[in-house]
Automatic annotation (TrEMBL):
<protein>
    <recommendedName>
        <fullName>UNC93-like protein 3</fullName>
    </recommendedName>
</protein>
<feature type="transmembrane region" description="Helical">
    <location>
        <begin position="165"/>
        <end position="186"/>
    </location>
</feature>
<dbReference type="InterPro" id="IPR051951">
    <property type="entry name" value="UNC-93_regulatory"/>
</dbReference>
<feature type="transmembrane region" description="Helical">
    <location>
        <begin position="228"/>
        <end position="251"/>
    </location>
</feature>
<feature type="transmembrane region" description="Helical">
    <location>
        <begin position="198"/>
        <end position="221"/>
    </location>
</feature>
<keyword id="KW-1133">Transmembrane helix</keyword>
<comment type="similarity">
    <text>Belongs to the unc-93 family.</text>
</comment>
<feature type="transmembrane region" description="Helical">
    <location>
        <begin position="65"/>
        <end position="85"/>
    </location>
</feature>
<dbReference type="InterPro" id="IPR010291">
    <property type="entry name" value="Ion_channel_UNC-93"/>
</dbReference>
<dbReference type="InterPro" id="IPR036259">
    <property type="entry name" value="MFS_trans_sf"/>
</dbReference>
<dbReference type="GO" id="GO:0016020">
    <property type="term" value="C:membrane"/>
</dbReference>
<dbReference type="Pfam" id="PF05978">
    <property type="entry name" value="UNC-93"/>
</dbReference>
<feature type="transmembrane region" description="Helical">
    <location>
        <begin position="323"/>
        <end position="344"/>
    </location>
</feature>
<keyword id="KW-0812">Transmembrane</keyword>
<feature type="transmembrane region" description="Helical">
    <location>
        <begin position="97"/>
        <end position="117"/>
    </location>
</feature>
<feature type="transmembrane region" description="Helical">
    <location>
        <begin position="20"/>
        <end position="44"/>
    </location>
</feature>
<keyword id="KW-0472">Membrane</keyword>
Length: 352
């Protein structure tokens, strides 16, 4: 029996998407580790050159970056809403092609602008991996690693020997979980049943706007570990309220209140994400200034692993089970961060 030609086309598309996803994931890991490292270096060198508080300067730099990054949720979703408003099942072919052309143009502009970034000089000559292994050992007393595999292994394992990164990992994991929850579960199970496919762009635009504003404000208020812990606590309360609302009280309804509910949930979720994401990147830069590459690499490893977990679980478990997982992860991450502040680190370890 000869298979229809469209079956072969579907299989080709499937394998092409898998290969493209692997390639994009590999490239994104490099980009995001470089982003965190460069932003931290730029902020701290700017603070030293201008005799400014390092913690507050890094907080502002981080807040401005993540605020602008979150604003793309607004522009991108409004653009998608405009170009894909006509046509069945998410827009016409012309609209989709136009959307990809616009995104490609933005990427090209970003690459060109990146070429004008100035080189940031590092303070001292400290190996970021060896810094994790021993803060008191001199670099010259450690045997060099001859194998590239050995270097890679040290970058993976060495940060896990630092109890500070172990206490931050739950927050990293939760941020990955909640990002994937918004993308895969919130839009499908909360927004779409009430607002339809066409309303997803508008709801995500509101989420992005709240995220951007809150990231900018959080960056201005974050000056050290204690202020970061206070903001993490507020972000935990905000997202905890939303999770309990969805778990215990929410049900899709019609009318004005039913339409407004997904939009309000998106806005509150954006507020919490703006707080937690900005604080996380600021604290990583402050606590691990001499090991930025390793710290931000760990951040992306755990965050991306959490994103993958949600995408694998979402088709196989109920919304209630997903909300229970999210709530548990949220309070574990907040507790670990509080423990980091109260027991492990002292005010002097983070420069204000």
């Amino acid at each position: 029996m000869v298979r229809p030609s469209w079956v072969g086309c579907l299989e080709l598309v499937r394998y092409t998407m898998v290969a493209a996803s692997l390639y994009l994931g590999f490239c994104a890991s490099i980009v995001w580790v470089g982003q965190g490292t460069y932003l931290t270096s730029a902020a701290l060198s700017h603070a030293r050159d201008n005799n400014l508080p390092e913690g507050l300067t890094l907080g502002k730099f981080t807040g401005e970056f993540w605020g602008l990054f979150a604003s793309t949720q607004v522009l991108g979703n409004l653009l998608s809403l405009a170009l894909l408003r006509n046509g069945k099942d998410g827009g016409s072919v012309l609209g989709k092609n136009m959307l990809f052309v616009v995104f490609l143009g933005c990427m090209i502009v970003g690459i060109v602008l990146m070429c004008f970034l100035s080189k940031r000089e590092e303070k001292g000559n400290i190996d970021p991996v060896l810094c994790f292994l021993s803060k008191r050992e001199e670099k010259g007393n450690i045997d060099p690693v001859h194998s590239s595999f050995g270097v890679m292994l040290k970058y993976i394992v060495a940060p896990l020997m630092d109890q500070r990164i172990l206490l931050i990992i739950p927050l990293i994991v939760y941020i990955g979980l909640q990002h994937a929850f918004v993308w895969a579960v919130f839009t499908k199970n909360i927004v779409k049943p009430v607002l339809g496919i066409s309303g997803v762009g508008g709801a995500m635009a509101i989420y992005g706007a709240a995220d951007a504003i809150c990231a900018l404000v959080t960056g201005c208020l974050t000056s050290g570990l204690y202020s970061a812990t206070f903001i993490v606590s507020i972000g935990t309360v905000v997202q905890g309220v939303v999770l309990f609302w969805l778990l215990l009280f929410y049900s899709p309804t019609v009318g004005v209140l039913g339409t407004a509910a997904p939009l309000l949930i998106g806005a509150l979720w954006g507020v919490g994400d703006g707080m937690l994401n900005t604080v996380l990147n600021t604290v990583l830069g402050l606590l691990f200034e001499d090991a930025k590459e390793a710290a931000f690499a760990q951040c992306k490893v755990w965050e991306c692993a959490a994103v993958a977990i949600i995408f694998f679980l979402s088709p196989n478990i109920t919304l209630q089970a997903m909300l229970i997982i999210m709530t548990t992860a949220l309070f574990i991450s907040c507790g670990a961060f509080l423990f980091l502040t109260i027991v492990i680190d002292k005010p002097s370890t983070v420069r204000s």
